[in-house]
C-alpha cells in the first residue's frame, strides 16, 4: 500500500508539474498574443495614418494638377488673344487719321491741281484701308440696319416714316471691328 501511495504521490506530483507547466505555457502564450495584438493594433494605426496622409497628398496633387492645367489653358488663351488682336492699339491710333482722310475725300474741288492732290489722298486712303483689311479690320455697316447696341452708339433719335422703327437712319462716324472685337462703335442716328 505504501507503494501504491508512493506511486499515487508521484503521479499527483507529475500531474501537478504538468499542470503547472501548461499554466505557465498558457500564460506565456497569452502574453505573446497580447504583445502581438498590441503590435497589430499599432501597425493598423500606422497604416491608417499613412493611408490618410496618402489620400491628403493625392488630393493636393490633383488640386495642383488642376491648377496647372487651368494656368496652361488660360495662358494659351491669353497668348492666342494677344496674337489675334496684336494690331488693336495700332488700329485704334490710325482710326482718327482714316476719319480725316474720309473728310478730305468729301471736299468738292474744281481746280485740276486740287483734283490731282485729292486723287493722291484717295490712293493713300485706299492703301491704308487695304492694309487694315489684311490685319482683319472691317467697317461696321450701319445705315438701314437694325440698331445693335454692341456695334452702334446712338447719339440722336428721329421719327422718319421711310425707315422701320429702331433702324439706323444716318451714320455720323464709322465704326470698326478687328476680327470679332469692336474697336470703335459707329455713331449713328436711330429711327424711333
TrEMBL record:
Its main location: cytoplasm. Residues 9-24 have a biased composition (Acidic residues). GO terms for cellular component: cytoplasm. The keyword Chaperone applies. CDD domains: GrpE. It is found in: Cytoplasm. Residues 1-42 are annotated as: Disordered. GO terms for biological process: protein folding. InterPro entries: GrpE, GrpE_CC, GrpE_head. It holds the Pfam family GrpE. One of its GO terms (molecular function) is protein homodimerization activity. Keywords: Chaperone, Cytoplasm, Stress response. Participates actively in the response to hyperosmotic and heat shock by preventing the aggregation of stress-denatured proteins, in association with DnaK and GrpE. It is the nucleotide exchange factor for DnaK and may function as a thermosensor. Unfolded proteins bind initially to DnaJ; upon interaction with the DnaJ-bound protein, DnaK hydrolyzes its bound ATP, resulting in the formation of a stable complex. GrpE releases ADP from DnaK; ATP binding to DnaK triggers the release of the substrate protein, thus completing the reaction cycle. PANTHER family: GRPE PROTEIN, GRPE PROTEIN HOMOLOG, MITOCHONDRIAL. Belongs to the GrpE family. Homodimer. This is Protein GrpE.
